[in-house]
């Protein structure tokens, strides 16, 4: 087992140049003085659900992203392409409603907002992005542009 995941949490893409995830070295620490302003609500909520696991594979035809989002409906998830080549997957899992007579023994499921961004490579055809959600798995398919092969013209050698 590598030492990197234990230092950086569950992140497996620490050195991935296409990932725009931001690692917060102060996550989990509470600073209540004027030298360290408190983190925004969005940042705090995002960190709760930021461990959304997303796989990215490249096939000959497309880049395919798969995200495990159990319990979320497609209406609670947004997929955008911004700034030309940045794929953004975001959403929010609402907290379960608490009743006064409920007695909780354990709460392990996370709630809150999540946001993941990926810088798409030059061969991504952003106009043809498609997304589908089935059984709690979001699949985003970004087709690849056909790379034109340069025309090669044979030259006859005289002499």
Notes on the structure:
The chain is mainly beta and 159 residues long. It is built from two helices and seven strands, in the order ααβββββββ. The chain has helices at residues 4-8, 41-49; strands at 54-58, 62-68, 77-82, 86-93, 112-119, 130-134, 137-143. Strands 1-2-7-6 form a four-stranded antiparallel β-sheet, with no helix packed on it. Strands 3-4-5 form a three-stranded antiparallel β-sheet. Strand 3 (77-82) and strand 4 form a beta hairpin. It is rod-shaped, with a radius of gyration of 22 Å. The chain starts with a helix and ends in a 16-residue tail after the last strand.
Secondary-structure map with pairings?
Elements: H1 4-8, H2 41-49, E1 54-58, E2 62-68, E3 77-82, E4 86-93, E5 112-119, E6 130-134, E7 137-143
Antiparallel strand pairs: 1-2, 2-7, 3-4, 4-5, 6-7
Features of the shown structure:
mainly beta, single chain, 159 residues, rod-shaped, 4-stranded antiparallel sheet, 3-stranded antiparallel sheet, 2 helices
